[in-house]
Predict the 3D structure of the following.
Amino acid sequence: MENNEHIVYMLKCADDTLYTGYTNDLENRLRMHEEGKGAKYTRGRGPFQVVFRENFPTKEEAMQREHEIKQLTRKGKAQLIRDKLKEVMQFEKTKEF
């Protein structure tokens, strides 16, 4: 069965660094990072907090986005996280309860 969820995510590590990755199963991928079986970079840097997430219809689009994010400076990544947070907050305000 083809999983049609392609996710680019950013983790904030315990040492305050950021890690950007791609997965089609974020829950499982986070578990792998926590167990030290994820990326070499994240080993020993947990616990982690997901600070950014974007979904894409295809793996190609997700991989391209992951590459773009990895080219950003830390400041650029922080801005991306802030922009996404603003978007979420706006969405929350417009929802009717």
